[in-house]
Amino acid sequence: MLHSIATVSLSGTLDEKLRAIAHAGYGGAEIFENDLLTYPGTAREVGALMRSLNLRCTVFQPFRDFEGMPALLRQRTFDRAERKFDIMQELGTDLLLVCSNVSPASLGDRPRVVDDFRELGERAAARGLRVGFEALSWGRHIWDHRDSWAVVKAVNHPAIGLVLDTFHSLARAVPSESLLWIDLEKVFLLQIADAPMLTMDPLSWSRHFRCMPGQGDLPLVDYVGTLHQAGYAGPWSLEIFNDRFRAASATATAVDGRRSLLLLQDQITRRFGRAAEATLPAPVRCQGVEFLELCASEEEAPALGALLQSLGFAPTGHHRSKAVTRWSQGEINLVVNCETEGFAHTFDAVHGASVCAIGLRVGDVQAAMERARQLQISAFSQAVSPGEMMIPSVRGVGGSLIYFIDAARTRQVWESEFVTIPPSASARAAGLLKVDYIAQAMAYEEMLSWLLYYVALFEVDKAPQIEIADPVGLVVSQAVQSRDGALRITLNGSAAAQTLASRFLNHYMGAGVQHMALGTADIFASAANLARLGLEVLPIPANYYDDLVARFGLSGELVDQMMKYNILYDRDGDGEYFQMFTRAFAKRFFFEIVERRHYDAYGAANASIRLAAQSRYKVA
């Protein structure tokens, strides 16, 4: 099927947009009228540019306030239509999008509307052109695709058809089953947009909050899948109005859009029981975090090692040919890379000591890499020394890497790459068992892009987006996680310049892992061990614990224990969550220690307490 995107979805000049669209692999583009009006070249030149880029002009749009105008204005609407037809022929498209009338002057008389479209159909057919009628969700008289279809059906003209838009239908909660009543031969174009679920007027919702499939909450798989199953084989075209996208790179947004259409197509194929027909390998199912790789200079490595020891980690292996040390505890592996050349060194030069890579266990490495390739996620490779294993990887947040490791060969990786370090008699573990989740901070404008990255590549669900009060602004957070909890990642961003997330980006020189949550089966035993090891934890005010007693009715003994070790608490139904935090290492990243008791969230209720406590150290 033809994938297309409206030029209004991207930033830049019209020629820049078209080149970005072609580079991302689309077969077509909708020319939005305002993009043409502001372009210094002619419509004929734009058409020639599109053909040189192997792009089909899917539609010219929008033609507004056409149907049902009073007699004094009616002739003017047809004069405007004839001018649109001239432009269409110069562009090289045969389809004009007419959106339902919003003018206060328009008449709701249905026979009159039908007559208007019948005449427009005659004029279009005389030029070999077609007209698609779209119901705007804020239309004055027609705001439901069932009504726009009734008009098209009554007109009964071969040049008059329907344009369906997922946003307009789903914003009005029109049942997707109603699509089955439509003659699909009369559906000339399907426009696709997702959106978060918001309570606001459809016009504002549409103009500012549309997003790519997979980034929002609308049931697109049901809607588009219903059409696909019924036999619709026409273009799928993105029409996205979003303030963030208009300020972002046209190239990056175009790639995201193409990725989102591939994801939607894959989801529909699998949802409707035809997985064998899928062109993409299955979403990557992560079986766990095998390692986190931290880069560090020779100057910062000793302090980082001291922090890891105070967390109960011990060095368990030296790389056979590189300045790389494996630190372990429970199932957790932290790899500290102090090489003076290569990827980790470059990452350290930009960011300082930080998490430069994440190693994930998967069942089929090649399938994971192939899905990434088809989704236009860049692979990474660098030279390896003789005897070293080549571990496939892709680029991740902030230029970091995600390694895919065969879950059946993890032992071989460690044994072939590392020389075992005998356990030290002085080593003391703290009872930490596994990587619970990874928190990544990024620019607010990038959050939707990275959300799409994870939901497209991995078999994960996305949690509702939440807002967290930082003492100097709001932080937006959204989690993605596999259903078994093997992979949990939170994405965090803020438009406020002084929030912790924003300060992290400035100090860190870009997006990356802000903290790592490590799981334990007994947080109080772990806290006692960590205290003996000298771990510096984030102090929590006594007022917080006074409030806990009132909110949850916890025993005084339990609250005293939490207060002693600066442990925070949350409850969700019968589930309980205990968490404590370290001070930040060089203001770049920190650790969280967590215990989950049938609890599946991330302690968002405590985030403002933690952020306030951390903000007291922003100068120190």
Q: What can you tell me about this protein's structure?
A:
By secondary structure, the protein is α/β, with parallel strands linked by helices. The chain has 3 domains: 3-277, TIM Barrel (Alpha-Beta Barrel); 286-420, 2,3-Dihydroxybiphenyl 1,2-Dioxygenase, domain 1; 432-615, Roll (2,3-Dihydroxybiphenyl 1,2-Dioxygenase, domain 1), CATH 3.10.180. The strands form 3 sheets. The protein has a 9-stranded mixed beta sheet with strand order 14-15-16-13-9-12-11-10-17, with helices on both faces. Strands 18, 19, 20, 21, 22, 23, 24, 25 and 26 form a 9-stranded mixed beta sheet that branches. Strands 1-2-3-4-5-6-7-8 form an 8-stranded parallel β-barrel, surrounded by 6 helices. Helix 5 links the parallel strand 4 and strand 5 (130-134). The chain is elongated and about 90 Å long. The mean pLDDT is 94.
Shape: elongated
Number of helices: 21
User: What is the CATH H-level superfamily of the largest domain?
Assistant: Divalent-metal-dependent TIM barrel enzymes
- What is the percent of helical residues? 25-40%
Largest sheet: 9 strands, mixed
Q: Measured on Cα atoms, how large is the radius of gyration?
A: 28 Å
Q: How many β-strands, per DSSP?
A: 26
Q: Order of strands across the widest beta sheet?
A: 14-15-16-13-9-12-11-10-17
Low-confidence stretches: none
Strand content: 15-25%
**Name of the level-1 CATH class of the largest domain:** Alpha Beta
Give the SSE layout.
Layout: E1 3-6, H1 14-23, E2 28-32, H2 33-37, H3 43-52, E3 56-63, H4 71-91, E4 95-99, H5 110-126, E5 130-134, H6 145-155, E6 160-165, H7 166-171, E7 187-192, H8 202-209, H9 220-230, E8 236-238, H10 243-246, H11 250-271, E9 286-295, H12 301-310, E10 314-319, E11 324-329, E12 332-337, H13 343-351, E13 354-362, H14 365-374, E14 379-380, E15 393-395, E16 401-406, H15 410-417, E17 418-420, E18 432-441, H16 447-457, E19 461-462, E20 466-470, E21 473-481, E22 488-493, H17 500-508, E23 512-520, H18 523-533, H19 542-552, H20 556-565, E24 568-572, E25 575-581, E26 590-597, H21 607-615
Parallel strand pairs: 1-2, 1-8, 2-3, 3-4, 4-5, 5-6, 6-7, 7-8, 9-12, 13-16, 18-22, 23-26
Antiparallel strand pairs: 9-13, 10-11, 10-17, 11-12, 14-15, 15-16, 18-23, 19-21, 20-21, 21-22, 24-25, 25-26
